[in-house]
Automatic annotation (TrEMBL):
Positions contributing to a divalent metal cation binding: 11-12, 43, 97
Cofactor binding, note field: Binds 1 divalent metal cation per subunit.
Protein known as: 5'-nucleotidase SurE
Domain Survival protein SurE-like phosphatase/nucleotidase residue range list: 6-189
Cofactor(s) needed by this chain: a divalent metal cation
Family designation: Belongs to the SurE nucleotidase family.
Key words of the record: Cytoplasm, Hydrolase, Metal-binding, Nucleotide-binding
Function field: Nucleotidase that shows phosphatase activity on nucleoside 5'-monophosphates.
Entry-linked SUPFAM superfamilies: SurE-like
Biological source species: Persephonella atlantica
HAMAP family according to UniProt: SurE (MF_00060)
Source organism superkingdom: Bacteria
Amino acid sequence: MEKYRVLLVNDDGYQSEGLKAIRERLLEEGYNVVTVTPDRNMSGSSHSLTFTRPLKIEKLEENFYYIVDGTPADCVHLGYHVILEGRAPDILVAGINTGPNLGNDIFYSGTVGAAREGTMLGIPSVAFSPASSKNPDFYGMSKMAVKIIRQILHKGLPDKVFLNVTFPNIPVEKVRGFLLTRQGRSAYREEIKKYISPSKEVYYWIGGEEALEEECEKGTDYTAVKEGFVSITPIRLDLTDYRGIEIMEKFGFLELK
């Protein structure tokens, strides 16, 4: 097998079990893996880059394992421009994330943001996540992830498109297959908790409870994982709603007064 170079990143930090599982699997399969991760959990950081302070790269291990005190997109940027010195890897792998990135999660996810950044740099990119954070089998998911990685390397991706992949949280032997899907809706019941500190200061914690019980539409990422399939959603860099342009032109939106 040709020794492909993989740039591996995540948003959960260097201690993530999902990251360890996919890294070990890729190394076992003979891939040349360059790992660049945040030095702490950066979930929810989306596609943000750090412009307000300098960033530090620290070598964690000798075998191409680095940590950055920044965001997942920072890791991609520094991994490509500094560590790899502008030599593009054959593929960028983001994850395996600790929790789900379904539906509207893709706008918040640092894992998806990293894959988007890789795509902007011209690197074929894929983001991997479980359907639930409750006891995910990262070892089994890594086996399925490698199959998708091989397909990307051998068959490529459409121009300016990356993949958001979600694994059903069931044993590998019970997975029914792989489906190409579209983005569904939000996966969480939103929740904001109010706290009062010992010094009587008020502060808030934004969070939410995973909720896949909602009505699922056929063909979405939600439905796929709920029915036991691996969801593969192609995502474009171009977010323009071209049908929206046509509709707005028809009802004369630009006839401003």
